[in-house]
């Protein structure tokens, strides 16, 4: 089952890492591997959400999402989108950006370095909003309860996430953008950072608005489908159980694509905190995207979601760390390996905490069963 589901992911990983080592050396091998792990860790909760929604579709629409969807995810968001970001921020055409990356890497590096304050401010704000909206929301399970529970109470204040993010942007503009690092030394990038940061905030709000719109449409269609099923039962007609189709499945598909694009977006933006090399970025994120899709299929086929409840927390703490690092890199350079491993450490810690929690629950249930067995046997 595992080999059948993840076979293509394993093959793409082996081919991608081998190509990176052959074409660019061991440094590229390491960066691509880190980016793959980063994408998987940041998008794990996306796979869980996808699986929960995808299982409601019929077989046809599941196939559409897992074929056309993977093309959009890998080739669109992971390959084209980084080029678009570089092209816009460096004020060059997309084709010129790719040509520079291939033919004149020094010039490309200079353009990316000059554009980095804008990229960092834009991406830092987008990622920071994702983290803040997560940390200010009340949840059933808390990982670091001593900080998450008080922040969840503060989250009742309207627009708190946006206010905190804007304060972070102002502080970054005041302390980091004044002497931002560029290819020609240091320059005042205050206006650029403020403009790019506000654009990142607006982009997040637009993506969230689209997700909410499709979610509302989905709920309407599901309610209509439920009413039709109830009417069919009352009339004694057979009720189909093959999954949603038609408009309901179409809205599901659109909703999933918006969700996937938003998760892809934070993965791409986070990758800029690790490397500016668009080909390493596309390769690493593409490998990670394959695993996210495979994991989605696995969860759907198994009919159950993962029990590691703290992984989502770890992923969002990693997003928050990346957001802070991006804002700091407006002025200061931070080694990409430190950035990558910080995310891996946070994810690893949340995974281990989940394992410990599951063992503790299993032991408690085993003890309860043992006590009941002892009582029933007269012990």
Automatic annotation (TrEMBL):
Pfam families: DUF475 (PF04332). Keywords: Membrane, Transmembrane, Transmembrane helix. The chain crosses the membrane at residues 30-53, 65-90, 115-136, 157-178, 190-214, 239-256, 268-293, 314-332, 338-356. PANTHER family: MEMBRANE BOUND PREDICTED REDOX MODULATOR, SLL1022 PROTEIN. This is DUF475 domain-containing protein. It comes from Streptomyces zhihengii. The lineage of its organism: Bacteria, Bacillati, Actinomycetota, Actinomycetes, Kitasatosporales.
């Amino acid at each position: 089952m595992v080999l059948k589901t993840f076979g293509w992911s394993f093959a793409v990983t082996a081919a991608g890492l081998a190509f990176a080592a052959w074409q660019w050396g061991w440094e590229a091998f390491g960066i691509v591997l880190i980016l793959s792990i980063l994408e998987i860790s940041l998008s794990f909760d996306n796979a869980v959400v996808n699986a929960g929604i995808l299982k409601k579709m019929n077989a046809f629409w599941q196939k559409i999402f897992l074929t056309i969807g993977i093309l959009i995810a890998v080739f669109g968001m992971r390959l084209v989108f980084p080029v678009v970001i570089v092209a816009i921020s460096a004020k060059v055409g997309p084709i010129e950006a790719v040509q520079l990356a291939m033919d004149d890497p020094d010039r490309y590096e200079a353009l990316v370095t000059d554009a980095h304050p804008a990229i960092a401010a834009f991406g830092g704000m987008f990622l920071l909003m994702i983290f803040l909206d997560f940390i200010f929301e009340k949840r059933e399970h808390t990982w670091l309860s001593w900080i998450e529970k008080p922040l969840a109470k503060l989250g009742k204040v309207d627009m708190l996430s946006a206010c905190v993010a804007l304060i972070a942007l102002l502080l970054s503009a005041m302390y980091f953008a004044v002497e931002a690092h560029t290819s020609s030394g240091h320059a005042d990038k205050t206006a650029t950072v403020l403009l790019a940061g506000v654009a990142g905030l607006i982009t997040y709000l637009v993506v969230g608005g689209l997700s909410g719109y499709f979610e509302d449409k989905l709920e309407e269609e599901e309610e209509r489908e439920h009413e039709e099923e109830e009417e069919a039962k009352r009339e004694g007609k057979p009720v189909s159980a093959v999954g949603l189709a038609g408009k309901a499945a179409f809205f599901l598909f659109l909703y999933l694509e918006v969700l996937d694009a938003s998760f892809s977006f934070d993965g791409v933006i986070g990758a800029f905190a690790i490397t500016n090399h668009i080909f390493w970025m596309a390769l690493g994120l593409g490998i990670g995207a394959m695993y996210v899709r495979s994991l989605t299929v696995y969860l759907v086929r198994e009919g159950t979601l993962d029990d590691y409840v703290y992984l989502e927390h770890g992923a969002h703490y990693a997003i928050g760390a990346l957001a802070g690092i991006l804002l700091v890199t407006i002025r200061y350079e931070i080694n990409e390996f430190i950035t990558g491993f910080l995310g891996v450490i946070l994810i690893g810690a949340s995974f281990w905490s989940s394992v410990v929690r599951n063992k503790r629950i299993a032991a408690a249930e085993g003890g309860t069963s043992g006590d009941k067995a002892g009582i029933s046997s007269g012990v």
